[in-house]
Specification:
single chain; 359 residues; alpha/beta; Aspartate Aminotransferase, domain 2; Aspartate Aminotransferase, domain 1; 2 domains; 7-stranded mixed β-sheet; 4-stranded antiparallel β-sheet; 11 helices; 15 strands; binds pyridoxal-5'-phosphate
């Protein structure tokens, strides 16, 4: 968490319920309103369009399910590269889903958007590869067919410029912990019309789309983090791109047979690659032992390794996908961190390849 977010959270953690009509409630309400206005101005949205949620996952669920229920149609168009928060929401609708084709890590053929649907869903940037998706074209094509669009911008907000107004999407999801805000601080931007039909029921908070008593401290901390992130964005983009490029060049010059999954245009901090012949989990464990915190593209459910659905959708062969590792550089990363990876990467990959594939 950024220090400005910690400070804002601590400062407001003792506030009362912003729904209270008494003076302390009104004071909390003012802090909430200020946070909403600041976030709206940073994302070029209307304050009424900002809905505080408990996570990016919750924002994605409210949008996908809510927009589907707001429509009479049963057809949905979606990208197969979505984070599971959108992917599983779409799969749970019981809708007639048309998945957009993928080429080079991006949705490619947008023809499916030319026929009307209850909604279309496509992320702005992919969480594993960092690949930036053609969201502006998607919104334009869908709008021509009268289809509302949900954009999962969890990886983009606070990292690249976002104008909700200019993009023209119907809904957009963000998550505070991705830009140095508190965990469990989510944002849903939702136009007045068409608005998602509520799927949670209770009080009238957040246009009744996200009922429940709001945490003023988290809202204030989210706004403070976003303000700082947006202020640093241009400089950070250049710095992270340089770090990431140095990491990629260093790995490619030290290790044979590397498959790079991150293709441009991509987020500045992402580098997703595979070391065929090695198993992701071995690589992650060896890197972790060397003090390097990398992630695998696969999820390990109930002890069973599953290849990432994103690499699968990209058509990456299983043997290659099983050796995938995602490195991300961020706000606290330095050149020394990159050098620390480069110092051990050749030996790490060699040991993981010797250990071979587990079954
Ligand atoms: N969407 C994307 C693209 C993400 O990367 C993530 C988190 O990793 C989420 C949604 C879920 O956000 P949260 O962790 O706030 O639930």
């Amino acid at each position: 968490m950024r220090q400005v977010a910690v400070d804002a959270w601590v400062e407001h953690s003792g506030m009362l319920n912003p729904g209270g009509q008494y003076a302390a409630g009104r004071a909390a309400r003012r802090v909430l309103d200020d946070a909403r206005e600041l976030i709206a101005s940073l994302l070029d949205a209307d304050p009424v369009e900002v809905i505080f949620t408990g996570s990016g996952t919750e924002a994605d669920n409210l949008a996908v399910t809510g927009l589907y229920r707001a429509s009479d149609a049963t057809r949905v168009v979606a990208s197969p590269l979505e984070h599971s928060a959108v992917l599983k929401s779409v799969q749970a609708l019981g809708a007639d889903v048309e998945w957009l084709p993928v080429a080079d890590g991006r949705v490619s053929d947008l023809t499916a958007l030319d026929s009307p649907a209850a909604l279309a869903a496509c992320m702005w940037a992919n969480n594993e590869t960092g690949a930036i998706q053609p969201v502006a074209q998607i919104v334009e094509r869908a709008a021509a067919a009268g289809t509302p669009v949900h954009v999962d911008a969890v990886q983009v907000v606070g990292h690249l410029p976002v104008s909700f107004r200019e993009l023209g999407a119907t809904t957009l999801a963000a998550s505070a912990h991705k830009f140095g805000g508190p965990r469990s601080g989510g944002l849903l931007l939702a136009r007045r019309s068409p608005a998602p039909t509520p799927i949670l029921f209770g009080g009238g908070q957040e246009r009744a789309i996200r009922p429940g008593t709001l945490d003023v401290a988290t809202a204030a901390a989210t706004a403070a983090a976003l303000e700082e992130a947006v202020g640093e964005m241009a400089a950070e983009e250049a710095r992270l791109t340089a770090l990431r490029d140095r990491l990629r060049a260093g790995i490619l010059s030290r290790v044979e047979d590397v498959v790079v999954h991150t293709t441009e245009p991509a987020l500045p901090g992402h580098l997703h690659l595979s070391f065929p012949g090695a198993e992701s989990d071995s690589l992650i464990m060896l890197l972790d032992a060397a003090g390097i915190e990398a992630a695998t593209g696969s999820t390990c459910a109930a002890g069973v390794n599953r290849v990432s659905h994103i690499l699968e959708a990209m058509g990456v062969p299983e043997r290659v996908a099983r050796g995938a590792v995602r490195f991300t550089v961020g706000r606290t990363s330095t050149e020394e961190d990159v050098d620390a990876v480069l110092a051990v990467i050749a030996d790490t990959v060699e040991r993981a390849r010797l250990a071979g594939m587990a079954g």
